[in-house]
Automatic annotation (TrEMBL):
Keywords: Membrane, Transmembrane, Transmembrane helix. Pfam families: TPT (PF03151). Coiled coil: none annotated. It is found in: Membrane. It is a multi-pass membrane protein. It comes from Macrostomum lignano. Residues 18-287 form the Sugar phosphate transporter domain. The lineage of its organism: Eukaryota, Metazoa, Spiralia, Lophotrochozoa, Platyhelminthes. InterPro entries: EmrE-like, Sugar_P_trans_dom, TPT_transporter. GO terms for cellular component: membrane. The keyword Transmembrane helix applies. Its main location: membrane. It comes from the Eukaryota. The chain crosses the membrane at residues 7-27, 39-60, 72-92, 148-170, 182-201, 213-236, 243-264, 270-289. This is Sugar phosphate transporter domain-containing protein.
Amino acid sequence: MARRSDCFIGTILCLNILVSVAIVGVNKYVYTHYGFPNLTLTMIHFVVTFLGLLICRLFGIFRPKNLPVLRMLPLSLTFCGFVALTNLSLQFNTVGTYQVLKTLTTPCIMTINAVAYGKPSSWRLRLTFLPVVVGVALNSHYDLKFSPIGMAFAAAGVLVTSLYQIWVGTFQSNLQCDSAQLLFYQAPLSALLLLPPIAYFEPPSSVSLTLSSQAVGMVGLSAGIAFLVNLSIYWIIGNTSALTYNMAGHLKFCSALTLGYLIFNDPISLEQVMAILLVCLGVFAYSWVKLREDIVAKAATQLPTTALGQQSVKSAA
């Protein structure tokens, strides 16, 4: 029975890594070969994700919870910005630069938590992001296909993504729900919120796009993979340890970098390779320090309970 359970967990982890890397490649292909409008693709992702959750609900895989729609609007706005801006970063940057820039999300979250919420991180955690920041700066400096607009979208995406990730935790705690139940409301609301900017920035008359059956198929594939990414992430978070989730994240990071250089022939210099290795060093160091701090914190919370239990046994004796 345990073997079957371990095999199932391993299968879901492999699926998550596969679809997480595939979504980067498929989206990049759609932008490069078909010039498909970014916001429209993002809206399609939201609609398909919502439809997928409805199907999961019918089969009992997912159970929604009644949530106040108006309170979901700020989270849905940041969800729109998070997905749209990261997709724009992918569209204008190489796959490697896109992945490297995303690593700035965690130090940005740490900064926002310290400044806005009075929750500073330990000096050890802050120290691990020195190689990340230096590596990102060096990668951008030596990027052979450097794009100022791509950097602007990436920077905005990091900020909005950081806010979104902080707010997701806050909303889950306040509304007593899980991530999938939030997504059930976020996805359709975000799709509706994207309609006005799509009408303004991407009207059909301004988009020179010839939709072949292959293009439609690739857009549908992209949307389907996006749903599988969301579904598998929520399952992994709820059913595995923090270590497992972190290791899966590292594998996705390295695999996506390899994808860009092997499949899309993104040019890379020796200086960029060194910069990326520096970023990887910082990311792995952060995971190691964070996991150790979590273990120590968990042990500290359990210690008073254990001591109290022993004291009760002695008193009874």
